[in-house]
Structures are given as structure tokens and as C-alpha cells.
Amino acid sequence: MKILVTGGAGYIGSHTCVELLNDNYDVVVLDNLSNSSEESLVRVKNITGKSLEFCKADLLSKKQIAAVFSENKIDAVIHFAGLKAVGESVSIPLRYFQNNITGTLNLLAVMNDFNVKNIVFSSSATVYGDPASLPIKEDFPLSVTNPYGRTKLMIEEIMKDLYHSDKNWNIALLRYFNPVGAHKTGEIGEDPSGIPNNLVPYISKVAVGCLPRLSVFGNDYDTPDGTGVRDFIHVVDLALGHIKTLPKLFSNPGLVIYNLGTGFGYSVLEMIKEFEEVSRRKIPYKIFGRRPGDVASCWADPSKAKKELGWEAKKTLTDMCRDTWNWQKKNPDGYQ
Ligand code: NAD
Ligand code: WQD
User: Mutation test of ligand 2: which of 291, 298, 321 has the most ligand atoms closer than 8 Å to its C-beta?
Assistant: First the structure.
């Protein structure tokens, strides 16, 4: 079976390529390297001892996508490619709509032309907005608060309409909670450009001495210690969720939706403490006001994925911090 992985050079994509190769799939990566480095794919090959095909191509060019489909007999697509910085999406929304929505429309149109109708899409827990209760189930109401989230919700709606128009499509919408961690070898991990927006990459840059101090956004939430609570999930568990989704997709399920989370929430202060213990470094931090758009708490009910895919997250908070730290120490400047 040959899987096309869009955005396969990126953080979650590269970890998923490792697990696909480990599971003996043939892998073709399509990535324009706008937020990644081809070095990640060299490392994927080193980790697995297997090769994959890399096509430097942009989803904004239908011609480039079609060339990949002409040269390869693709069985299914895992679609990671997209821009993902929430703050940036507020400042340059048109770029987000253009890249994420137009890119996805181009991909779907080419898939349709080549009669490849199996796709796994990277959605996000952001589509639940501020949930009325916890844990979050797949049938909760959807709403978004920023252009990035809107691209995810719009793509979900587009894919639902597509499925309703043609029941030959098999579509899995996977809603990720907060992916963190790195491969246990420390060869691949998250390599944000510039100053990280997300908590764990920021903490690890403070631990390694690249940034002086973490800003904690709010300690007055209605949570046990007042700081935000999130469902952090190890990126390798997340990658394995995709591996478990593929047989489901090939069983012609139609359109299916799964939360990929652990079902447990940890606070910002708990994450800092765990990272300090694992790294044996002090993480200086200062409390600031709330970050606009943040919710107090967010964690998944992952029981549907367990029941229907036979998947559940296994790695602990300690694994997440230890593997992030291992990657950060070995690669203080990322892939550069
Ligand atoms: P990432 O930025 O590391 O990977 C995305 C990849 O897509 C990059 O390699 C980038 O170069 C590529 N890309 C972007 N636009 C492209 C285009 N037009 N054509 C070809 N390639 C393009 O991000 P990630 O953290 O690995 O996230 C993967 C997916 O999962 C994204 O769709 C993201 O929105 C979604 N997601 C991520 C998180 C998270 O916290 N990391 C949470 C929920 C959902
Ligand atoms: C986690 C907690 C912050 C940074 C984001 C996207 C979401 C999804 C996952 C893609 C919050 C606090 C953070 C910092 C802090 N991505 N924090 N200081 O916001 O839950 O989710 O990534 O789909 O769409 O919004 O993740 O890591 O940014 O924040 O105190 O420097 O850490 O306030 O409580 P978030 P995060």
C-alpha cells in the first residue's frame, strides 16, 4: 500500500512517516518545506533503515500535485500540510485561508481526478471552541475563535459535503488535542521557526538556555492551580493513531471522526514541574494575564477511537517531557 503524506517533513508528519515505514507501507511525502526541513526526512530514513520518496511540491499548484499522482499509484492520503500558528492566522488570515483551504481543495480535486478517495485529515480540538463540559466527545457542538481554527472547521465541512455528494469517499477527520514530545531517538522532533508559540517548545527552549524565562498566561482560571489545563498527547502515540486509522479507512467506513487525545488534563504549572524534574534544569517563569482566545480546560473523551480503531495513547507526561528534552539537547538549533 502506498500512502501519500502531505506535510510529511513537518513535526507530526515526520513521526507518522516513521510509523508508516515501520508498518511496511510505501511512503511518498509531498511538502513545500515552508515550515520544515528535508533533513527531517533524512532522519526518518536513518531511524527506520527504510527509504521514502520526497516530492518538493506545493498544494497551491494543482499541476504539481497531479504530477505526484501520475508518478505514483497512491492508495490513500494523510493530509497534514497546512499553516498552524493561531496568532499569525489572526494577523494574516487571507494567507491561512489561501494555503489551508485552497491547498486542500486542490488536493481533493486531484484525488478525485485520479479516483483516489481515501483521506485522513489533521483536524484539531480547536474546532470545539470553549466546550460546555468535559471530557469532549466527538458529537459536541463546534465553534472557533480564530482564522486557523476556522480553516479546520471549514475543511471538515467541505469534506462532509464531498462525502455526501459521493459515497465512494472514505474520510477520517482526526481531531488532535495538544501534540508534544519527540521520537525516543532524539533524531526528530518539533522545530518551530523563531520564538515558539506553544507551551512545551517554549519550556524546552528555556531549559536549554535559548530563552530566559517562560510567560505563564493566566493563573486565575477555574482549574485546580489556576493555570490552563490541556490534554497533552505524545506525538508518537498520535502517529500510531494514524496507523490504526488506515485499516479502518480501507474498510470503507464513509466519513468518520475521532478524537486523538489521552483523556487526561495537566496544567501549565504541572508541565513546568515535570519538565524541571526530567531535565534537572530550573524553568524560570512569570505569571502574566490570560492570552486572548485561550480556554481554561480542554481534554478529550478518546473512547470512540479505542472502541472503533483499537487505539489508545500509552505514553505518560514523563515520556513526553523526557523525549522533548532529549531532542532539544541533541538538537539545540533544531535541524539547522
Ligand atoms: P508542521 O508545520 O510541522 O507541518 C506542516 C507541514 O506542511 C510543514 O512541513 C509545511 O512545510 C507543510 N506545508 C504547509 N503548507 C504547505 C503547502 N501549501 N504545500 C505543501 N506543504 C505545505 O505542523 P504539524 O505540527 O506537524 O501539524 C500537522 C498538521 O496537524 C497541520 O495541519 C496542523 O494544523 C494539524 N494540527 C497540529 C497540531 C499541533 O499542535 N501541532 C494540533 C492539531 C492539529
Ligand atoms: C497550552 C497552555 C496557554 C504558551 C494550540 C492551538 C490548538 C492546537 C494545539 C493546532 C495554554 C499556556 C502557552 C506560553 C503559556 N494546534 N501557555 N505560556 O493553545 O492549547 O493549543 O496548539 O491545531 O489549535 O491553539 O496550546 O501550547 O499554545 O498552550 O502559559 O508561552 O499553555 O495559555 O493554557 P493551545 P499551547
Answer: 291
Residue 9 pLDDT? 98
Q: Whose CA is nearest to atom 24 of ligand 2?
A: 126
pLDDT tens-digit map of 26-52: 999 999 999 999 999 999 999 999 999
In short, whether 80's Cβ falls inside 6 Å of ligand 1 is yes
Q: Across the chain, what does the average pLDDT equal?
A: 98
Residues with catalytic roles? 148
| Nearest CA owner, ligand 1 atom 33 | 84
* Helix and strand totals (H; E) in the chain: 12, 14
**Buried b vs exposed e over 167-198: b needs ≥16 C-beta within 10 Å?**
eebbbbbbbbbbbbbbbeebbbbbbbeeebeb
Q: How many angstroms separate the alpha carbon of residue 28 from the centre of ligand 2?
A: 31
Is the model's pTM score more than 0.90? yes
Torsion angle of the four alpha carbons 66, 71, 74, 78, in this order, in degrees rounded to the nearest 10: -60
Residues 74, 107: Cα–Cα separation, whole Å = 13
Q: Are 138 and 176 in contact (CB under 8 A)?
A: no
pLDDT of 336 higher than 90: no
